[in-house]
Structure formats: structure tokens, C-alpha cells
Design brief:
Elements lengths: L26 H23 L48 H7 L39 H6 L7 E2 L2 E2 L1 E2 L10 H14 L9 H21 L7 E4 L2 H13 L7 E5 L8 H10 L2 E5 L9 H7 L4 E7 L11 H10 L3 E5 L11 H4 L3 E5 L10 E5 L1 H6 L10 E4 L4 E3 L13 H17 L1 H20 L5 E3 L10 E3 L5 H10 L2 E2 L1 E3 L4 H5 L6 E3 L8 H15 L4
Parallel strand pairs: 3-15, 5-6, 5-7, 7-8, 8-9
Antiparallel strand pairs: 1-2, 4-10, 9-10, 11-12, 13-14, 16-17
């Protein structure tokens, strides 16, 4: 069966936990090699797209004339280049595998992005080549130091040490652009929206509806009317569960996967209890990948709803949602995709995925807390009842009957979270300015480096080794409680999540109740990963 998922091949064939790397190549050597390969590929791509612009000198450690053999069992992308013979050869046409990786990312064709591979990057503006926050050098590098300067909280110290924020799967930090957008709204435009006969109401309404257009464009939606603002992914799934669940009956089936967050389990259990519907669960294998054959066998004539994560928050697994959606739609089911862990890591195109609903939270993509969005097709919105009643979602009210507003207002009862919707728009514009292909490529390199460093620690067990992952690395150490490890890391200024991550079924598949979960984002660096691995190594050796 064809694999149509997007993501990063990082851990296939890695050494067993605790195994040392053969030969003279250390984990650091491996990561430096990987970095050089990625940088060379990016430089070649940028050079090609810019019509042969000379590349700038690369800030990459010098490589020895004769490279050691690659470590056995590591992914092909870690393999070092052959020793140079004579003049430097032209870059390989496959760009050391990076073009293949970028090509697998779904949804790159629905908007004009500053690319890593393809047309030239913009020549002006804050993210033009060579300048501005998140800008690229002429060689095509992701300027992580410029990105870090955009996030004030990264200048904080914890226990006297610089903050290293590796709790991104729980929430991301906020760039100054988002903070400024929130402050500017409250300082200059604060008003309730719609129907106000004054200037501030008009300005607030314009800003709120502009945010809706930004979300629609970011997701590749057909238009802004397909976007419903909610408090976050949890409320979005509850909305969908309640409006779709109203039409279920006894014996109807809801299909989930073993990877789901509790927010994509509990609302469906509540629906099943009310309606007599049955929940069926697609299993995962010991790498943390959905067994697609088993998933397909679950789909049948009584399947009404399929709800699945785009990427697992506990293991990092990226699901092949396009394929899984097509299989479900062929059985006549509605499909819901939880995009909380995907939208910040790689481009998402809801039209290509084809689901009825796609849900995400703003705070997982550098936006404010308390805001998120549901992409819902117009067919779904028109055919389903509203969830909550009140102001804004009505057209006319009498004591005899109420007629509802057109979508999406029909699903937005009461005063919405105006300021945070505007902040979410600012966050999505910020990420778009960086270039989501660039973000994906940069995080790909971070994940490879972190995987190599952690896998080299004696006794450490990486949990979730799917071939395609976002930057989530769950692990355990023998004899050490994950919460204790989290506290020891905090003393060194390193923030990680420790616990069950609101995904107990996925961890129990591996016989675990908790893991330590560092998770990566655009502002993390290789140096921070080295700090993390060094401290975890000391904990593993009993020195902390």
C-alpha cells in the first residue's frame, strides 16, 4: 500500500537503546555530517533557484579529507559524503535526499511560499534573502538566531541558566509580533464586533474577519466561510462530536486510532454513551505507526465517523491522513482530523486531505491560548445543526422559533475571543513569513540530531520510532521516574514535559504510564539539544 504521509525519516534502523556507535564516529560527528549534508542541499537549491547566485561561505565545521565509514543502522541521510577527488563536483541532483523529503510534505501547492526548493525567495520585506527575522542567507540557511530574537521569553533564565524550551508539544512561545498585535488591539481598537454603529466596532470587526481570512489561506481552505473560531482544538472536537453525534444511532460506528489524544477520545465516548454508537480503534505497531490494513478492515457499512490525529502528541508519528481519509470517505463516513501537532511543523492543505473537519489550536503554533479554529466544509456546515445558542448565531428570534445565521456565524454563539483571533492571525503570518518549507527542513535537521544524541545514551529507550515524525522524542530511562528526570532537567534550565501527555492508550501500548517528552520548534538549536543530551546522559550515569 502506498505511503502518502508527510514527514521525516529519522529513526528507522537506529541502534538499539544503549548501543554504542561502531567505528570512530561519535553522535556529534554524525550530527555534524547530517548538518553539512542538509546545508549543502539547501545551498544547492537556493543557488539553482536564484539563477546561479554565488553561495556565501558556509559556517559548517571543516570535514576531514577522508571520511570514516557511516555508523551501521543509522538512516541513509546520515551517510557522510565520499572524499573529494579533484575539483569539487556539482551538487548531486537529488540534493542529498532533501528534495525527496520536501516533496513528501503535503499541501505545498496551495499558496505562494518563500521556498527552500523551487522559485526564488522574496527580494524584499522582513524575510527577504539575507535579512530580517527568520531570513535566509544567499545560501538558503534558516536564520535561527534571528528567529530567537523575535521571542522575548527565550532571554529568560531558569535557576540561573538560559531557558531551553523543549515543551513545544504542550504549548509554544510567542513572538513579539503576536504580543504586539494583542497589545495594539486592546490599546487602540477594543470593541465588540458586528452591528456596532461606531468606528471601533468597525475596526475590531475588520481585524477579526481578516484573521479568519488568514487562517483560511494558511490551511488552503476554499474561503474564509469554512473557518469557525473556537477556544482551541479540544473545543473544536467537542463541537464536531456534538453536531455530528446528533445524527448517530445504536450500532453506528466511530473509528479512532490508538494514537489519539484524550481530546479526540473522550468527546466521542460521551457521544457513544448518549446514542448507543460503538467506538472501534485502529491499532498501532511497536514503532508507533497505525497498521493500515487493520484500519481498513475496521471500515464498514456502519462506519459513520472517523476521527484521527494528523500527528501524535505522545510519539510524534505522522499519520497518512490523505490515504486514511480517502478510505473512510469511500465508505461514506465523515472524517475529522486533529491538526494540533501538525500545523506548526509542515504545510497543511485541507483541500488535498479531503476531510470534512480539520481542527487546530493557536497556542501550538506560536499564537495565544484560548483560540483555535475548525475548518469545516460548507456542505458539512449547512447540513449540521448548531451546537450552542445565543447572540451572533441567529438571523431572527421569536418565542415561537429561531432561524439561524449562515455559516460560519451559526457555530459562533456569543462574543468571540476577538483579541486572540487577531493574535492567531499574527502568528500565522509570522510562520508564513519564515516559509513553512524552511521550517520543515530546519526541524528535520534538529530531529535527526536529537535522535542521534539521545539514542547514543546508555540505557535510554526512545518510545515511538515511526519512519515519519514531527519533532517529538518520548523516552524513558531504566530505574528513573520520568517526573524526577523532568525536575532534574528543570534545574539545568531545560523545560520538558513528563507524564502521560493526555495520551494514555498510546503509552500503554508500550507498557508505560509516563515518558519524558522533549519536543522541538523553530527556535530550538543544536546547542540546546546538546545541552539536553548531556544532562540526560549525566542522569543516566547516576551523576545527577
Amino acid at each position: 500500500m502506498d505511503d502518502v504521509s508527510t514527514g521525516v525519516s529519522t529513526v528507522a534502523g537506529r541502534p538499539a537503546a544503549g548501543a554504542s556507535m561502531p567505528g570512530d564516529v561519535s553522535a556529534g560527528d554524525v550530527s555534524r555530517i547530517a548538518e553539512r549534508l542538509m546545508h549543502e542541499a539547501l545551498a544547492a537549491a537556493a543557488d539553482a533557484s536564484l539563477g546561479g547566485m554565488p553561495a556565501q561561505p558556509q559556517a559548517v565545521p571543516a570535514m576531514p579529507a577522508v571520511m570514516p565509514a557511516p555508523p551501521v543502522g543509522l538512516p541513509p541521510s546520515f551517510a557522510p559524503p565520499a572524499a573529494p577527488v579533484g575539483p569539487a563536483a556539482a551538487p548531486p541532483t537529488d540534493l542529498s535526499g532533501l528534495r525527496t523529503f520536501i516533496g513528501r510534505i503535503r499541501g505545498l501547492d496551495h499558496r505562494q511560499l518563500p521556498p527552500v526548493l523551487g522559485a526564488a525567495a522574496p527580494s524584499s520585506g522582513p524575510h527577504a534573502i539575507g535579512g530580517g527575522a527568520g531570513g535566509l542567507s544567499p545560501a538558503g540557511f534558516f536564520d535561527v538566531e534571528a528567529v530567537r530574537r523575535d521571542f522575548p521569553i527565550l532571554r529568560e533564565k531558569v535557576h540561573g541558566r538560559p531557558l531551553a524550551w523543549f515543551d513545544n508539544a504542550a504549548t509554544t512561545q510567542k513572538p513579539q509580533a503576536v504580543i504586539d498585535a494583542l497589545s495594539a488591539f486592546y490599546a487602540h481598537d477594543n470593541s465588540n464586533i458586528h452591528r456596532g454603529a461606531h468606528s471601533l466596532a468597525a475596526r475590531a470587526t475588520d481585524a477579526y474577519e481578516r484573521a479568519r481570512r488568514i487562517v483560511a489561506d494558511f490551511l488552503g481552505a476554499a474561503g474564509p466561510d469554512e473557518i469557525i473560531f473556537v477556544r482551541g482544538c479540544t473545543e473544536g472536537i467537542n463541537l464536531v462530536a456534538n453536531v455530528c453525534g446528533a445524527g448517530l444511532g445504536g450500532g453506528d460506528e466511530i473509528v479512532l486510532t490508538e494514537l489519539e489524544h484524550h481530546a479526540n477520545i473522550v468527546p466521542w465516548q460521551m457521544v457513544a454513551e448518549r446514542t448507543g454508537a460503538v467506538i472501534r480503534v485502529a491499532p498501532i505497531d511497536d514503532r508507533g505507526e497505525v497498521i493500515l490494513e487493520a484500519y481498513e478492515r475496521l471500515l464498514g457499512p456502519r462506519t459513520r465517523i472517523v476521527s484521527l490525529s494528523h500527528a501524535s502528541n505522545s510519539l510524534g508519528t505522522i499519520l497518512p491522513v490523505e490515504l486514511m481519509t480517502r478510505l473512510a470517505k469511500a465508505r461514506g463516513a465523515r472524517v475529522v482530523v486533529d491538526g494540533a501537532q501538525s500545523v506548526s511543523h509542515f504545510p497543511v492543505n485541507v483541500a488535498a486531505i479531503g476531510a470534512d473537519f480539520y481542527v487546530f489550536s493557536g497556542h501550538k503554533i506560536f499564537g495565544p491560548t484560548g483560540i483555535g479554529a475548525v475548518h469545516a466544509t460548507m456542505e458539512s456546515q449547512r447540513s449540521l445543526p448548531p451546537w450552542q445558542g445565543g447572540g451572533n448565531m441567529i438571523r431572527d428570534v421569536t418565542f415561537a422559533r429561531t432561524t439561524y445565521a449562515d455559516p460560519p456565524a451559526k457555530f459562533e454563539a456569543g462574543t468571540p475571543n476577538i483579541a486572540d483571533a487577531i493574535g492567531l492571525g499574527a502568528a500565522l503570518e509570522y510562520v508564513t513569513g519564515l516559509g513553512r518549507e524552511r521550517v520543515a527542513a530546519y526541524e528535520h535537521g534538529l530531529l535527526e540530531h536529537a535522535t542521534a544524541r539521545l539514542a547514543a545514551i546508555d540505557g535510554l529507550r526512545l518510545v515511538g520510532t515511526a519512519a515519519h515524525k514531527v519533532g517529538v522524542l518520548s523516552f524513558v530511562l531504566p530505574g528513573r521516574d520520568p517526573l524526577e528526570i523532568g525536575r532534574l532537567l528543570d534545574r539545568e534550565g531545560i523545560a520538558v514535559r513528563a507524564g502521560h501527555h493526555c495520551a494514555q492508550p498510546s503509552l500503554r501500548h508500550f507498557g508505560l504510564e509516563a515518558t519524558v517528552r522533549p519536543s522541538l520548534a523553530i527556535y530550538n538549536t543544536r546547542d540546546e539539544i546538546d545541552r539536553l543530551a548531556d544532562v540526560v546522559g549525566r542522569i543516566a550515569r547516576g551523576r545527577l
